[in-house]
Amino acid sequence: IGGSDMYRQQILDHYKNPRNYGEIEEPTFTHVGENPMCGDTIEMDVVLDDDESTIEGVAFRGDGCAISQAAASMLSEELQGMETDVLEEMDRDDIIDMLGVDISPMRVKCAVLAEKVAQDGLEIYLGEKDLDMTTTEEDD
Ligand code: FES
Ligand code: FES
User: Fold this and answer.
1) Using CA atoms, how far apart are residues 35 and 82, in angstroms rounded to an integer?
2) Ligand 1 centroid distance, CA of 39 (Å)
3) What's 14's DSSP letter?
């Protein structure tokens, strides 16, 4: 991982002490995704408010490299209270900015796994995307 020490420390801290790690009992939706290259997984529970415009709660479980897991932890904090419109518009550049480090092309897939899980889960829930069971980094 390139970039400043401060950001590297932050990534390691999120990896070792993931925020919002666990389950939510009655989520609005749950979605799971994996990186087929390595088998890393992220599963996310999301709670939406009554009019489905704002994210009220997020929890995730996962297994994998420091970048995929730290990105999930950092994203789980950013998603709290976020408008669903904002989540739908997030892209890989937002995640790279959030991480604050240089990410090699190979590892961008690690970085964006959690974001794709959250976004695909939301779009499937809202009926904007065909139902499928898992997200992979290939279904761009
Ligand atoms: Fe698999 Fe990072 S090595 S997502
Ligand atoms: Fe191995 Fe992400 S697939 S570094």
Assistant:
1) 25
2) 7
3) H
Supply the DSSP symbol for 43.
E
Query: With a 6 A CB cut-off, is 64 part of the ligand 1 pocket?
Result: yes
| pLDDT for position 139 | 46
Which residue has a Cα nearest atom 2 of ligand 1?
110
Task: Provide the token pair at 108.
Answer: 């961008």
Contact 59, 44 (CB under 8 A): yes
Residue 47: strand, helix, or coil: strand
Enumerate domains of the chain plus CATH numbers. Answer: 5-126 (3.90.1010.10)
Closest CA to 84 of 112, 113, 46, 110: 46
- pLDDT of amino acid 140: 45
Largest distance between two CA atoms of the chain: 42
* Low pLDDT (below 70) residues in the chain: 1-3, 131-134, 137-140
